[in-house]
Specification:
By secondary structure, the protein is of the alpha/beta class. It has a domain of 196 residues: NAD(P)-binding Rossmann-like Domain (Rossmann fold), CATH 3.40.50.720. Helix 5 links the parallel strand 4 and strand 5. The chain is globular and about 55 Å long. The protein binds NADP nicotinamide-adenine-dinucleotide phosphate (NAP). The site of NADP nicotinamide-adenine-dinucleotide phosphate (NAP) has 30 residues, from helix 1, helix 4 and strand 4.
Length: 285
């Protein structure tokens, strides 16, 4: 099993959850740059993995707005390079993607075949990466979309909230963007199942269960972190609207993913996001 993006949140979660029977090679950008088609081809030829998980991505959503070419080089061209190389050696490809491929105006959990209408450069480059992964593999790849990922030691919303809740007297968080926080460990467990199922192809969704706004997520982070001793005092958490917190990239107002097709296909159900948040904070503690 070859994991590209092996140094990121998901890459590390895959390492922590890997079945003992599977040999896993994880590479970060310093070891293999997915922008380099020749290097990707040569490395896959040399390693000959049975499965490739492409978790390598430009994930700086706001920075992508002013660096569209650089984001596309990783998220679109990089995904194409990986898919072409995987196809050449007959490896199964799992391409990881995002809820930000959606525009967020639908108002019900989004199914894999709902139209992808991204609002941001990041979302567009990831949508195009999905198309490249499926196109280069004649549809044999699995594209697995996820959302709001966090992992111990990662750059994520949980880490940011813990830091500013320690530093500030109050925290303001948007309450009109709704999605599903997902522990990278939960996605990793699902990806191991996808890896064992060569009969599955196309687009799938996997997040933890339930829904939350970023505000709900922040309130839960504070409550759970107080319970585990990561925070020693509570600060007011104030709900604000997106318009009061302008960012370079537009984000979907509602990007809850309907993962029910994955649950049925894998015979696996995700835990509620709050249960996994508690598990993660307990591990950190
Ligand atoms: N984070 C989220 O909230 C979120 C939400 C939905 C979907 N996703 C998707 O989930 C996947 C994993 O995300 P994550 O949170 O684990 O990301 P992450 O922690 O930001 O890690 C990104 C990984 O991509 C690698 N990478 C970046 N540029 C590269 C390049 N040119 N060549 C090779 N590798 C490169 C990085 O390597 P180095 O660190 O070694 O440079 C790192 O291992 C991505 O596909 C992302 O789009 C993430």
């Amino acid at each position: 099993m070859l994991v590209l993006g092996g140094t990121g949140q998901l890459g590390r979660a895959l390492a922590r959850t890997a079945p003992a029977t599977i040999e896993i090679v994880r590479l970060g950008s310093a070891e293999l740059d997915v922008r380099d088609a020749a290097a990707v081809g040569a490395r896959l030829e040399a390693l000959r993995p049975g499965v490739v998980i492409n978790a390598a991505a430009w994930t700086a959503v706001d920075a992508a707005e002013s660096a569209a070419g650089a984001a596309a080089a990783v998220n679109t061209a990089g995904a194409a390079h990986v898919a072409r190389a995987a196809e050449r050696i007959g490896a199964r490809l799992l391409q990881v993607s995002t809820d930000f491929v959606f525009g967020g105006g639908c108002g019900r959990p989004l199914r894999p075949d709902d139209p992808a209408e991204p609002l941001s450069v990041y979302g567009r480059t990831k949508r195009d990466g999905e198309a490249a992964a499926l196109g280069e593999t004649a549809g044999r790849a699995c594209v697995v979309r996820t959302a709001w990922l966090y992992e111990v030691g990662g750059h994520n919303f949980v880490a940011t909230m813990l830091r500013i809740m320690r530093e500030r007297e109050s925290v303001s968080v948007v309450s009109d963007q709704v999605g599903t926080p997902t522990w990278a460990r939960s996605l990793a467990t699902a990806l191991w199942r996808f890896a064992e199922r060569p009969d599955l192809a196309g687009v799938f969704h996997w997040t933890d269960a339930g829904v939350a706004s970023w505000y709900d997520f922040a309130v839960a982070i504070q409550e759970e972190a107080l319970a585990t001793g990561q925070l020693t005092r509570a600060v007011p958490v104030l709900a604000i609207r997106t318009a009061e917190y302008p960012t370079a990239a537009r984000r979907p107002a509602y990007s809850v993913l309907d993962g029910s097709a994955s649950w049925r296909a894998l015979d696996l159900r995700p835990a509620h996001w709050r249960v996994n948040l508690r598990r993660m904070l307990e591990e950190m503690a």
